[in-house]
Amino acid sequence: MRPAASRAAPWLWLAAAARVASPFSTRAMYAELDRSLERYAAVESADAAFAYLKDLIERPEHSYHNTLFVLDGVVYCDRRFLATDKNNKHVAMVGSLAALGVDPPNVVYRFIYGAEGYNKGDALARHPVLVIAKYDGYGDAGVLAPNPYFLDLRAWDEERRRILAKAHARPYGGRDGRVFWRGEIASHDSDVETRADHGTAAERAAFFCAEEGGNYARLQAASLTLAAPAKVDVRCVSRHSCRPRDAARHPCAAYPYDGDMARAANRPKDLVDRGGFVDLPEYTRYQKVLNLPGKTTGSYSRNLNHLWALGAVVLLWEANYVEWYYPLLAHGETHLAVNKSSLLAALDAIDALPDANRTALRVRAKEIDDRVVSGKGIAAYFGALFDRLRARFSLGAVLDDPCARARLFRAANCSALDLVAVAPAAESFFKSWPGGPGHMRRLDAARVPAAPTDCNAIYKRARDACAAAGRGDP
Ligand SMILES: *[C@@H]1O[C@H](CO)[C@@H](O)[C@H](O)[C@H]1NC(C)=O
Ligand SMILES: *[C@@H]1O[C@H](CO)[C@@H](O)[C@H](O)[C@H]1NC(C)=O
Ligand SMILES: *[C@@H]1O[C@H](CO)[C@@H](O)[C@H](O)[C@H]1NC(C)=O
């Protein structure tokens, strides 16, 4: 008989057979979170917190309007913030925390959706920015938060359940032995030719060449599909999504093509999977899955979000960018780090491992899914992140006290803000997961329901709560 735990987490039985070196711990992830906050001066009194919050409300960074308030479980932000799809997804995620058992505390923070993180120096250095990736590693500014592609965490868990069911039904030995990836290779060729907003032709060429890292990595990996088809199945999902850079017209000294790559770039249609988009649970047909850097800037890719759940061996293409849980990752334990020259040998090495060692890799990957990237894991991280922001900047002293909150929203000049309120929804706003490009578009078009409001409305509610508590007029 299997241990009782197998019902709750069917993959745990694997662990018994595996040689997992040490118990799973999230300590390193939270240590990095603490470290990243240390660069911002601590705020230690209620008066100082009042000034800190007033400044944050009055100086939303103009290009982003990126300040969010979470008050009594409702998310407030600028309407223009929600115009960006990824911001919508972030708000949906925060709005679903309570449904996952983590009531978000009162907090005010800034959020930037860009995959490159935040490298603009210290213009607003008092107020940390939540970023979803750090392009150059942990030294970059900002505080790491999960990327928006988990959407509403209830929808994410529903999708994970579909993946886990398939993973369980497909034992490793019966799977396709090749390493798998599907996606887009989207060169910046047309940007170089048309984006007048990026300066002269020479400036554009330099700018977009610097952004080619992700497409370069993708072409490197896909070129091995042509060179070693028995081991590598790395392809684009359509002809339209397979447009490698034309190296003759747009050379990039930093990203030279080798022979494999030049051949692949000349025959992009050979890189196309005619089956088209692959539904996420179907990634469980493979023993080994690969993550490649994002196509736009070569930073994180949303593809990785679901790879940990597959019961496969995970391979990560070497790069400097980091996400919030990367402090928990280790080459040879949770995944294998690969590049163009090491990929084929790594695949052979995986096949040559004793069963127990290979199983250990899969178990460690599955732990990342179960403890960190699951709905519960993400909700726990947001809870801890918000608690730390509150502690570092004494936010509770103002936001949790209705009288102090009323004083703040009466004093703050909100005239630059076009505020809306997003109340937590009883059900996930994102109903179906991408089963194909059509679904993907519908999902991307989804918008959280936002009601117009303003600082005065927040002030009045807090004032009434202050009076109801018998503390008079704030
Ligand atoms: C590729 O990975 C191998 C093994 O980790 C390493 O020795 C090599 O330096 C890497 N190559 C490049 C170009 O980074
Ligand atoms: C398999 O795992 C054991 C225990 O961690 C380790 O000592 C051994 O070196 C591993 N073997 C290989 C081939 O990696
Ligand atoms: C409020 O801020 C706006 C700019 O956002 C400014 O034009 C206006 O003068 C400010 N009002 C007061 C009373 O300070």
UniProtKB/TrEMBL annotation:
Keyword Signal part of the UniProt annotation: yes
Q: Does Signal appear among the keywords?
A: yes
Residues annotated as signal peptide = 1-23
| Alphabetically ordered keywords of this record | Signal
Q: Classify the source by domain of life.
A: Eukaryota
This chain belongs to the protein called Glycosyl transferase CAP10 domain-containing protein
Organismal lineage: Eukaryota, Sar, Stramenopiles, Ochrophyta, Pelagophyceae
